[in-house]
Amino acid sequence: MGNLYLVRHGQASFGADDYDVLSGLGERQAKRLGEYFKYKGIVFDAALTGTLKRQVSTFAGICAGMQANPPSSSWPALNEYDSEAVIHAIHPYKLEKPTTPEMYRSHFRLLKNGLAQWMAGVVSPVGMPSYIDFVAGINTALDHVRENCHGNVLLVSSGGPISTAVGQVMGASPDATIELNLRIRNSSITEFAFNPKRHMLVSYNNLPHLDAPEHADWISYA
């Protein structure tokens, strides 16, 4: 028996040359989350992280805030899908960097459409696994936790894998899984209870570490 805390990485660098780097806010979000875990007395017996820079840096920030380093292992299957490849699969033209609200909305409309077609097996984004294989990779991490872990386990990943994990546990449709994905917030906590047979959803997309008024402007999505 145990509790699995699935954490989305802190704010990355949307629109920059290298998205896969935490912004200054993303670094603060990660450290603040670690401070929250320490305050609550939550000690992790194990941790799993993807291998993307924003995921690894988020885990490091959490550890700094907790002033603890739980035993950890890297899981490439927890890496995010390539959003640019997803969009390019349905819109094979170069997109300008979004600088206005309408450009941001257009970007996410294309992403939503591309995700739906990838999940249905209609398109095969370059350099990405099929959606079936993407889901299977995430399930390997969840199965590992059920079969080998106990107590509190930390999993640091991204919106796609976390929403997919929730979709698998809840039996959600592809459309519902996409909606979960596009609304997940940076450094948010999703909690599963688990036993050797299954995972059970306890909470989704929570930000208890940012509840105080002084952190109201720390909430971000991209």
TrEMBL record:
<dbReference type="GO" id="GO:0016787">
    <property type="term" value="F:hydrolase activity"/>
</dbReference>
<dbReference type="Pfam" id="PF00300">
    <property type="entry name" value="His_Phos_1"/>
</dbReference>
<dbReference type="InterPro" id="IPR029033">
    <property type="entry name" value="His_PPase_superfam"/>
</dbReference>
<keyword id="KW-0413">Isomerase</keyword>
<dbReference type="InterPro" id="IPR051021">
    <property type="entry name" value="Mito_Ser/Thr_phosphatase"/>
</dbReference>
<keyword id="KW-0378">Hydrolase</keyword>
<dbReference type="InterPro" id="IPR013078">
    <property type="entry name" value="His_Pase_superF_clade-1"/>
</dbReference>
<dbReference type="GO" id="GO:0004619">
    <property type="term" value="F:phosphoglycerate mutase activity"/>
</dbReference>
<protein>
    <submittedName>
        <fullName>2,3-bisphosphoglycerate-dependent phosphoglycerate mutase</fullName>
        <ecNumber>5.4.2.11</ecNumber>
    </submittedName>
</protein>
